[in-house]
Amino acid sequence: MKKVLIIAAVVGGFFGLMQLVRPEKIASAPVGDLAGVPKEVDDILRKSCFDCHSSQTNLRWYDQISPVNFLVYRDVRDGRKALDFSNWDSMATPAQNSTLYYALNKVLEKGMPLPAYTFVHGPARLSPEEVDILKKYTLSRTPRILTDTAEVVTPVSLAAAKPAPNGIAYVPGYRSWQVLNTSDRFDNGTLRIIFANDIAVKAIQAHQTNVWPDGTIFAKTAWKEQVHADGRVTAGAFFQVEFMIKDAKKYAKTAGWGWARWRGDSLKPYGANRLFATECVTCHQPMHDNDFVFTRPLDRSFADELPENPLLLHTITGMVHSNDSTMSMLYGNDAAFAYAGSHSDGHYPGGALLYEVTWRQQPDERWTGANIPERILSVERLAFWVDGQPVYTMYKGTPLRGGNRVSAIAGERMAVAP
Length: 418
Fold this sequence. Notes:
- This protein has 418 residues and is an alpha+beta fold.
- The chain is built from eleven helices and eleven strands.
- The longest helix has 17 residues, at 2-18.
- Residues 12-142 form the Haem-binding domain.
């Protein structure tokens, strides 16, 4: 009995001494009602998110016991860096939408609230009904809005591209790579095409994509969406390009990938310092069992019935048809790609070849706020003779919009990117 008391005294004394060693205190300040947010949504966010994702941190007595408080304070600081609702009223609407979609996707993937947090903070758990409320509200904030289709698409200069903060240099020439997939990111109003280099394409053909081999590079290119009155959504001004470069040893600290991003016509490198890559890893964390890659490769088997494989041609542009929930990609041979890069009149020269592939859209189960291709509805081929006269052929499906599609396909403008 005496030995037990001695052990208890030692443990108690040690525990008491630990309380003298405490982390830097977390500042806390109240956050007012989120502007424009319904009360039921505001209440859910406060209950389940605000402790770690706002300045209004409500620490319970058991959160402040050492050494637990070191973990709690770390999670709060990291949480505020990733997402902070305290800044809501100062955010522009697109930034608010991005914040909500980020939070929603973290909730849907069971990453927020943290399981360790809800284990001791039971009321923070989200019910299915509360998740549904968040989802419906978030989706309601991003309707298609008619844009100025006369917007000038500004060519960008590679000379402007400085290295990313982590030292990764801009990767030119990716527009000649094959397409991995495309995505309609209606959550932030961008149309995306993801390109893959030869190493990645060979890995796809060999079914060796988890994990991807070293040397794999993806170029995730985004354009601002232009919404037309007839429901078409086309690629407008260049917004950004993000690169993922696989080198398991070199980039071991960032999940085996080098991350870099350039934005706008000036190709401004993204990130204040090299630590920006942790933001990328955090965003891709839900895909840790898929080598941190969200994008699934397009089904390539459909091309077996065609004279040429469109996916081996150059990608000219992408398009969404919101009225019938479809999306398409326009591919071209060397002659067509070169002409589209400097002309927008649709008068392709002899020898040019175009393919338009159209898919039914489906929600991206890996990212709420995006649509991706599902099944193919049609494949259209447009070959230009030496005299420039086109020959139109439908290989699959039925014309989605009826009539002669020659002028519609030939008139699609290239999505300009460096």
